[in-house]
Amino acid sequence: MFDELEENYFNPKQQIKIPTSNRELILLALEGNEETNQRIDKIDERLVDIEENKLITSEDKGTIDRAVRKKVYQICKEQHLGQNAKGMLYQDLGSSIKQLFNVPNRGRIKDKDFRKALNFINSWEPSSVTKERINQIQTELEM
């Protein structure tokens, strides 16, 4: 047991070679630098991915929700529409947002698309199907 301890402790089989020349020191530094650069590249890729897929904040979702309510209210006021029409407009606009941004709900919009979503809402017009349904309801109410 003592012989084995002496052999492995005092004379390890793998001795670390310490660089002695300037060339060896430079090669060691370059090797360490390359490893560091590879790790930084991986971190950069992960950060870009995180930034690209970051979702809007709850405050931003609130802003989008207010913009949706404002747009629906504006259309209802301009065209003197009732509650039935309001529901259809909410459904149409919500569906359009989900479809355009490929999300299950407004809270899943990506942060990079926040301004685009607001611009879309502000310029949105109801679909021709929704307009026709609203016209049918209005016609029925007038009868």
UniProtKB/TrEMBL annotation:
InterPro entries: ORF6C_dom. Pfam families: ORF6C. It comes from the Bacteria. Residues 28-134 form the ORF6C domain. This is ORF6C domain-containing protein. It comes from Candidatus Enterococcus mangumiae.
